[in-house]
Amino acid sequence: MTQHAPIIGIDLGATNIRVGLVEDGRLNALERRELPEDKSVMSVLNVMTEMIESVDNGAEEIGIGVPSVVDSDEGIVYDVQNIPGWEKVHLKDLLEEKTGKNVSLNNDANCFALGEYMFGHGRGKQNMIGVIIGTGFAGGIILDGKIYEGRNCGAGEFGMIPYKQSILEHYCSGQFFSRLVGVRGEEVYQRAVNNDPASKKLFFEFGGHVAEAIKIVLYTFDPELIIMGGSVSSTFPLFREGFESELKSFGYPNSLKNVEIMVSKTEHVAVLGAAALCASSNVNVNKTEK
């Protein structure tokens, strides 16, 4: 990523916001805050603007990743699954009006994949998938060295695929513990770390569900690399056994030998990827004609 002027990168999640100042491919300042309690558009924008002002050092552009389907050309965010009230938000126009800076936006999973492709383990790969496992479950797709977002920037929304009378996201994210088991994931994690058998069994089961989702990715794209990120991916040591056990049933075992599946180790990769959306970074996006 070649750039001269600094760029603001923003990772908007379902529970928190991260805002960073990126200069020459390096993150030189970072601020993190929880979303305001009401999560309304204006409340979030006000917090976001304060954070931008806190880290800014002459940036003229802002890149932002949002956990939903977006119109990346018009800068409109649609139907954010885990932030109620965000059905149709003209985020680009609103943020440009508040900051006076040029704004680029895309899906947060695309930003994660782009960040890994440009700054992380994806460097040198041409075909890779970045999967976010956190409050939700979604993927960003790099094909032939370009972000593939589809016609409506909805490519990679694996979490919405029907699964077990529900959808994959309910089984392959933190929602597995809160929605289906009735216990917060953090509590299950602490118990599992302390060798509680029931909690360790839950993580084993969770790993099996994540493997089912990864098999769908493999059957669909057959990439060189699948890299997992997001808050829940950090618990991989606890669900690795269940994950690897279920993955053995993949129909083409030779393909498994030729794909890397790993957990991201790139710090603040989604913020870096969001900054890379901006025009000055010369990112290639593969769009389907509308």
Protein described:
- The chain is of the alpha/beta class and 290 residues long.
- The protein has two domains: 7-111 and 269-282, ATPase, nucleotide binding domain (Nucleotidyltransferase, domain 5); 123-263, ATPase, nucleotide binding domain (Nucleotidyltransferase, domain 5, 2-Layer Sandwich).
- It is built from ten helices and 16 strands.
- The protein has helices at residues 41-55, 91-99, 108-119, 168-171, 175-181, 185-193, 197-221, 236-247, 253-257, 269-275, and strands at residues 7-12, 16-23, 26-34, 61-66, 69-71, 76-78, 88-89, 102-107, 128-133, 137-143, 146-150, 162-163, 166-167, 225-229, 260-263, 285-287.
- The strands form four sheets. The chain has a six-stranded mixed sheet with strand order 15-14-9-10-11-16, sandwiched between helices. Strands 3-2-1-4-8 form a five-stranded mixed sheet. A three-stranded antiparallel sheet has the order 5-6-7.
- Strand 1 (7-12) and strand 2 (16-23) form a beta hairpin.
- Helix 3 crosses helix 10 and helix 7 crosses helix 8 (236-247).
- It is globular, with a radius of gyration of 18 Å.
- The chain starts with 6 loop residues before the first strand and ends with a strand.
- The model has no long low-confidence stretch (mean pLDDT 92).
- Belongs to the ROK (NagC/XylR) family.
- This is Sugar kinase.
- Keywords: Kinase, Transferase.
- GO terms for molecular function: kinase activity.
- It holds the Pfam family ROK.
